[in-house]
Design a protein that fits this description.
heterodimer, A: mainly beta, 6-stranded mixed β-sheet, 4-stranded antiparallel β-sheet, 12 strands, 52% strand, globular, B: 112 residues, 51% strand
């Protein structure tokens, strides 16, 4: 069965610091999809990025970057020059292509990021 | 641009009562699912559907029923509410395998 581990329960940083959120996953499928979602204090879930298992290219989007490494089953998320508006709970999630569908996401327990002035 | 709409946003139930959480999407997505979010546990899958007329159980299905009579709607029924079902419930839809899921605003349910 698939599993997603976010070992960091809570991280506190001062604004403008860089911060990396860790995500480690387990799956038996060779084809799978990884996601990051953000849940701000207002409670909605906001999609950030999707990666498939065949695409190990790292990605940068503004202050956000993602490091996908199949060799270590990790999909880490870095925020550069953090801002107070980045304060939220961040979830990593996994969907398997063979045994699962787009309906079946396995989530990590989330990392609460607190950015202070 | 409605996306995924959940109603109600808040609900308080007494133990033993039944109710239906509504979920509707206007994106013509085949895939829909229900999750519950509890402190420290992330989101856990309750039930899911890969198309109209097709549903299946997720990780925590006990105490919940679903049906999918149309592509747009995927209601979640609590048969006999228990305090353990106090949670925030999210409905999601996705357009295809490997695509991102879009979530509703959530329903905060309290069972007393």
């Amino acid at each position: 069965a698939q599993k997603v581990t976010q070992a960091q329960t809570e991280i506190s940083v001062v604004e403008k610091e860089d911060v990396t959120l860790d995500c480690v996953y387990e799956t038996r499928d060779t084809t799978y999809y990884l996601f990051w979602y953000k849940q701000p204090p207002s409670g909605e879930l906001v999609f950030l990025i999707r990666r498939n298992s065949f695409d190990e290219q790292n990605e940068i989007s503004g202050r956000y970057s993602w490091n996908f490494q199949k060799s270590t089953s990790s999909f880490n998320f870095t925020i550069t020059a953090s801002q107070v508006v980045d304060s939220a709970v961040y979830f990593c999630a996994l969907s398997e292509a063979n045994t699962g569908t787009a309906s079946k996401l396995t989530f990590g327990t989330g990392t609460r990021l607190q950015v202070t002035l | 641009n409605a996306g995924v709409t959940q109603t109600p946003k808040f609900q308080v139930l007494k133990t033993g009562q039944s109710m239906t959480l509504q979920c509707a999407q206007d994106m013509n997505h085949e895939y829909m699912s229900w999750y519950r979010q509890d402190p420290g546990m992330g989101l856990r899958l309750i039930h899911y559907s890969v198309g109209a007329g097709i549903t299946d159980q997720g990780e925590v299905p006990n105490g919940y029923n679903v049906s999918r009579s149309t592509t747009e709607d995927f209601p979640l029924r609590l048969l006999s509410a228990a305090p353990s079902q106090t949670s925030v419930y999210f409905c999601a839809s996705a357009g295809g395998r490997g695509t991102e899921a879009f979530f509703g605003q959530g329903t905060r349910l309290t069972v007393v």
